[in-house]
Design brief:
It is built from 1 helix and 3 strands. The chain is α+β, with helices and mostly antiparallel strands. The longest helix has 22 residues. The protein is globular and about 50 Å long.
C-alpha cells in the first residue's frame, strides 16, 4: 500500500527547532519527528501499528486513489 505524507515544519514553539509534522490524510493520522527523515520514520511506524490494529479488528483500511496537492495564497482580509 502506498500513502501520501505531507510534511510541515513545526514553528509554533511546541517542539524544539528541526521537528516536522507528518500528516497521512487518507488515514487521518498525524505524527512528528526530527527532520523530514525522522517524521517519515515516525509516520511509517504509526501506519504499521494502525493498519495492524484495523486488520485485527476486521475493519476496512482506506486505500488512496488519487491525491492532488496545491497551494493558494490568500490575502489577509483585515489588511486589504
Amino acid at each position: 500500500m502506498t500513502y501520501t505524507i505531507l510534511y510541515e515544519k513545526i514553528t509554533d514553539g511546541s517542539m524544539p527547532d528541526g521537528y516536522y509534522y507528518a500528516h497521512i490524510p487518507v488515514l487521518d493520522l498525524t505524527t512528528h519527528g526530527i527532520g523530514i527523515e525522522g517524521a517519515k520514520a515516525a509516520a511509517k511506524d504509526l501506519m504499521k501499528v494502525w493498519i495492524e490494529e484495523k486488520r485485527a479488528n476486521g475493519e476496512n483500511i482506506p486505500v488512496e486513489d488519487e491525491t492532488l496537492i496545491s497551494k493558494i495564497e490568500v490575502e489577509d482580509a483585515l489588511l486589504s
